[in-house]
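call fold(seq) -> tokens
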Amino acid sequence: MASLKNIKLRIQSYKKTGTVTHAMEAVSAVKMRKSQERALNGRAYAAAALSVLERLSHAVDLAQHSLMKPLPDDRGPISAETPLKSCFIVVTSDKGLAGSLNSSVIRRVEYELSKLTLDKSAVVIIAIGRRGAEYFASRGYDVRERIDTLSDDVSESDIRRITEILIDWHRLEKIASCQIAYTNFISTFEQQAVIRSIVPITPEAMREIISEIRPVRGKYAPTLHEELIKAPAAYTIEPDADTVLSVLLPQLLNIAIFHAVLESKASEHSARRVAMKNATDKAKEMAHIYTRQFNKARQAAITREVSEITSGMEAMK
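ret:
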């Protein structure tokens, strides 16, 4: 049995650990609420851009725009012999201590790669977050672009470089498509790793991404009025459709990537809050167990000493 001193040191260690994890839990809770509100409050802007896109579809042929037109597949399947590649944007965190948050996103990307039977040389990775970048780089994937240490106050302009890179790659026919993998925030205790197609741009894919920003119930749930604003409207396009779409489509693509980052940030802090709460509860439990063990050991030692004193007194008689 461990000595009383060792047991006491363990109790102190668990209490100190619980104090640290409790502080991290409180910090993550504040960051989670802030990230969630940023994602939800920005939904109106994203929904308005999507609404304009859907209404323009009744006036112009959107399929003719380069960002909405799939590249021709007459060059054969995507492989090492053809310059066409599949691009994956992987959004993970820079830090750990967030449960299975990062591993679930990575597994989702690996599942998609296996389903498409893509060779590593036919895939290009854009990593937002250190965890995803290090994972795929260590396994021989072409991590062409990476953004590490992205702050919680990330702005839309910080993501614009990634959007411009995607547009250039697609315009130069370096990539055939692009998908983004991230963690969708559902609630404090539930996050879901998802993967969405963003290039070529389709109203259906954008609608799916935007619909996930706002929860079904609660303060930020969409109202009936918002759901009903879907009727097509007539537009007078000036100066011309190509000029309007050349501004609208990159902006909509940037919004999609930006909201994926915000969703991941909210999910990260939520997962870390839950993980730290579990760690705090476990530390308290272990401290309680060792406190009982300490009391039992101390009581046994006192009983033994009293017994020895009593036996000594009886022997002296």
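Residues 4-22+275-316 form a domain with the Helix Hairpins fold (CATH 1.10.287).
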